[in-house]
Design goal:
Layout (H helix, E strand, L loop, with lengths): L13 E3 L1 H9 L12 H6 L4 H11 L7 E3 L1 H9 L13
Antiparallel strand pairs: 1-2
The structure holds zinc ion.
Zinc ion (ZN) binds next to helix 4.
Amino acid sequence: MPCDICSRPTTDLNNIPNLTMRQAILSGFTPFTAGLLPQKLSRLATPDSPAKWKQQAMDGLLAETDWKLCNTCTAKIQKTEFRNQNSDPSEF
Ligand SMILES: [Zn+2]
């Protein structure tokens, strides 16, 4: 199974609740800023890639389900300092 963030295949996936992901994303987390994207994808990234990723993460398929993340990505999420849960999504 690939990790939902970095797409690396792993058998060691952690279940991250959807709400936790939303909080992390609202607090500024993206795989781009966290350095979690595979190099291949990073090279293809454009300046608006983080914004697009956020939009997909908040409104797309992943927004409805819990995330399955590898240990590396899980650690990054856990290190993200969450802002107030009620922070305004329009801050994007
Ligand atoms: Zn990962």
